[in-house]
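Figure 6 in text form: structure in, sequence out.
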């Protein structure tokens, strides 16, 4: 693939490490330390781009020593990723999150197969930190973004993925999906991956590029899991209706029936921990049908896949969302 910059006058570096963050203060020192360690490894990346998606826009002090801070003023992870893609200079864009632990050489390992022309995108094995060893359910571990371990299907996840810049002309970060969006707060990576696969992108796991994910363990109460089940279902309905072109017969009736099943389950089993995952699956199923009922009232966002039409090359980014990049100190 031939590198294609979003700005013809901008010099490209081999790889950029991009992190979108809402700026949680307890995560910033560790993030900066990891970015600086990666920048010191000459085989890794030539720049690190932190996309400041915090409400206050207060992360400019992180800039310096090869770290650039750019602003995405409006909320939403998909919007922040779009801003990061526009501002990064690399031929290869390596993405991770502010709660992910990685080795200094990790970005270079992720970028190497792409720079060599062997792959167009790479996925990292993502393992949950040891503090989550008591979560045995594959469903729940997957909902916390554990992915690409031996035996898993390959999938791009924001905790650890890389892509060639040319793919930005084939896929978009749909701003109606992803963290920060009410309801459909998941699925933006799945949609992006499906778009680029439809255009022949080569994607595989880099087995020796494992990262460790440390999401906030304090949030993982029953209400969090119920909300996640609902958001996952709504997001999957959006993906199925708008991208896959699927339909669901009588979604309103199915929603009513599934709501009754959930009510019966709760009446019978209450808060029985042994039945909790079953409750989550019922919530998810209910959200899928409710999502189809809602989405089917609007035109499909993408052309039918059978037509082979390419996705639009450039997502719209509200002008107010892209601020001037902070100038690195020193």
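Output sequence:
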């Amino acid at each position: 693939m031939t590198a294609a910059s979003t700005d013809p006058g901008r010099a490209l570096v081999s790889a950029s490490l991009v992190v979108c963050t809402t700026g949680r203060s307890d995560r910033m020192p560790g993030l900066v330390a990891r970015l600086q360690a990666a920048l010191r490894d000459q085989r890794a990346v030539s720049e690190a781009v932190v996309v400041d998606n915090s409400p206050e826009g207060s992360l400019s002090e992180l800039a310096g020593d090869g770290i650039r801070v750019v602003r995405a003023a409006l909320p939403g992870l998909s919007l922040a990723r779009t801003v990061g893609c526009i501002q990064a200079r690399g031929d290869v864009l390596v993405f991770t999150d502010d709660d992910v632990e990685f080795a200094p050489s990790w970005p270079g390992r992720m970028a190497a197969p792409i720079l060599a022309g062997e792959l167009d995108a790479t996925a990292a094995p993502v393992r949950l930190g040891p503090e989550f060893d008591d979560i045995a359910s594959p469903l729940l571990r997957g909902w916390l973004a554990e992915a690409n371990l031996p035996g898993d299907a390959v999938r791009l996840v924001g905790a650890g993925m890389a892509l060639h810049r040319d793919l930005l002309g084939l896929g978009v970060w749909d701003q109606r999906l992803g963290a920060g969006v009410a309801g459909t707060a998941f699925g933006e990576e799945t949609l992006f991956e499906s778009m680029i696969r439809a255009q022949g992108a080569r994607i595989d796991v880099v087995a020796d590029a494992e990262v460790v994910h440390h999401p906030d363990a304090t949030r993982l109460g029953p209400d969090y899991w119920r909300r996640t089940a609902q958001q996952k279902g709504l997001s999957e309905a959006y993906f199925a209706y708008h991208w896959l072109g699927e339909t669901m017969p009588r979604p309103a009736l199915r929603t009513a029936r599934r709501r009754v099943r959930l009510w019966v389950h709760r009446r019978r089993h209450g808060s029985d921990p042994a039945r909790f995952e079953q409750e989550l699956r019922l919530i998810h199923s209910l959200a899928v049908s409710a999502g189809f009922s809602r989405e089917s009232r609007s035109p499909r966002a993408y052309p039918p896949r059978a037509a082979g039409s390419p996705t639009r090359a450039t997502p719209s980014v509200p002008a107010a969302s892209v601020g001037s990049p902070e100038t690195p100190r020193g």
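Caption detail: The chain has two domains: 13-213+309-321, 222-244+246-299.
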